[in-house]
Structures are given as C-alpha cells and as structure tokens.
C-alpha cells in the first residue's frame, strides 16, 4: 500500500464519482471550495494505492504543520479487509509528528435511529482502535454534529484543538460560509 498525491483533476473526478456516494450530501463541501483550496496550496488529496489500483482516498486541509482530515474513505468492495487501518497508519507517517492532526467523526449521541447510532459508533470505534484520540471537543459542521479526534501526540488541550480546527476551516471557507456552518457545541468534562 502506498499514498500518492492526487492531481486537481483526479480530486474532482473522485469527488464526482465516489464522494457523492461515500458521504451524505450534508457532509460534502462544494467542489469549488476544495479546488480553490488546492489552488491556494492549503488542500490536498491523497490516493491509497495497492499497486496501480486506487482503493481509497483522503482529502486534507493543511496549515503550517497542522492538518484536518477532511474526508477519508475506502472503496466499498475493499472495506473490512484492514485497508482502512493501513490508510490511517500511512497517513500518520505522511503527516509526521510535528503538528496537530484533527479528524471528525459523527457523534453517536445525535443519531437519528438505532441503525444510525450503530454506524456512527462503529466509525468512532474504528478510529479509536487505530490510535486516534477523542479531543473532548464537540462541533457542528455544515449541520452535522461531530466529535473531534486527533492523531499523533499533540497535547490534550481542548481549547487548542478547537483553535486549530477553527483556523483550518477559516483558511478554506469564505467568512460567511464559515460563520454559518462551523459551530463549537462545547467540551466534554473528562
């Protein structure tokens, strides 16, 4: 398995062919936001390749040594084979230990029904099993309630995690879009 940077054209192709089925519509940023970030050098896409075949992808917002794992998915026919765990490991190696790496996972507390709660819990547990940690920060992003996770070894400061998360989104979203769609719900007490 190997991570390779995706071209702007391949980022758009994956958005149009995979992301629209891999993610709920309310979680997808407009493609123009992603491509504008790519043009500014603050957004990148990485493909997970098994030889010449792409089997998954991740899209990242980057600012200095800090990253937001904006999207991460394995192609449906390759799921439940350990490839997702390989992607997390390769991603941690790719980003190094210098900054803060933040990811979002849907909060099971806001599930619409039992099936949704089970799916959200399974996703959260996948990340926790693969070395991610709960930052204690809860947010609402484009109408979806998320738990913020971190990879690597950043300090556990909740306020710093929110500050980095907020800054990463401010770097990619127009001000009005940020103000309307990114909200701090609060911090856990653990």
A few lines on this structure:
The chain is of the alpha+beta class and 190 residues long.
What does this structure look like?
By secondary structure, the chain is of the alpha+beta class. The protein has one domain (2-187): Gcn5-related N-acetyltransferase (GNAT) (Aminopeptidase), CATH 3.40.630.30. It contains six helices and eight strands, in the order βααβββαβαββααβ. It has an eight-stranded mixed β-sheet with strand order 1-2-3-4-5-7-6-8, with helices on both faces. α1 (8-22) runs antiparallel to α2. The radius of gyration is 16 Å and the shape is globular. The chain starts with a strand and ends with a strand.
Brief descriptors of the model:
single chain; 190 residues; alpha+beta; Aminopeptidase; 8-stranded mixed beta sheet; 6 helices
Q: Looking across the biggest beta sheet, what order are the strands in?
A: 1-2-3-4-5-7-6-8
CATH homologous superfamily label: Gcn5-related N-acetyltransferase (GNAT)
Largest sheet, strands/sense/barrel: 8 strands, mixed
Spatial separation of the terminal alpha carbons: 37 Å
């Amino acid at each position: 398995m190997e991570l390779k940077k995706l071209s702007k054209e391949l980022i758009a192709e994956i958005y149009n062919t995979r992301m629209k089925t891999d993610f709920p519509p309310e979680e997808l940023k407009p493609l123009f936001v992603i491509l504008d970030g790519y043009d500014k050098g603050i957004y990148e896409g990485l493909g997970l390749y098994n030889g010449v075949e792409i089997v998954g992808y991740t899209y990242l917002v980057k600012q200095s040594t800090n990253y937001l794992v904006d999207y991460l998915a394995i192609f449906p026919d390759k799921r439940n084979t350990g490839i997702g765990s390989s992607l997390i490991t390769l991603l941690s190696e790719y980003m190094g230990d210098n900054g803060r790496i933040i990811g979002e996972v849907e909060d099971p507390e806001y599930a619409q029904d039992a099936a949704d709660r089970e799916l959200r819990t399974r996703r959260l547990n996948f990340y926790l099993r693969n070395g991610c940690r709960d930052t204690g920060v809860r947010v609402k992003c484009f109408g979806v309630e998320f738990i913020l996770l971190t990879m690597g070894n950043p300090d556990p400061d909740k306020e710093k995690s929110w500050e980095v998360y907020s800054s990463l989104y401010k770097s990619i979203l127009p001000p009005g879009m940020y103000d309307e769609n990114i909200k701090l719900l609060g911090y856990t007490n653990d």
